[in-house]
Structure formats: C-alpha cells, structure tokens
Amino acid sequence: MTENSLIELEIKMAYQDDLLQTLNDIIATQQQQIDRLERAYKTMHERVDNLSSKIPEDASPQYELPPHY
Length: 69
Description:
Helices cover 75% and strands 0% of the residues.
C-alpha cells in the first residue's frame, strides 16, 4: 500500500466518522421529538377522556353526531 492510498483511506474514514456522528445527532433529535409528541398525545388523550366522562349518559341531541357522519 502506498502512502497516498493510506491518506485516501484516512480521509474516507474521517468523512464516514463525521457522517456517522451527524446521523447519530439527527436520530437523537428525532427521538426527543417523538418523546415530546408521545407526551402531548397522552395529555390530549387524558383530556378527552376527562371531557367524555363529564357528558351525561342521557345527553341531549346536541352531543350526537349529525346523520352524515
């Protein structure tokens, strides 16, 4: 192996290391976004459940869906 070949391999490896770090950062950011979305979903789901439990069982027609739904 010549010195130029080694230098080329080291350059390629440096680019791959940089790419790997960039992808790792992106994945970490996306996981944080997923975690925030899951928490928001859970909060909204709990709010809907709480509101649903406040609707009386013999609810008036104002709570019913129109026929086209």
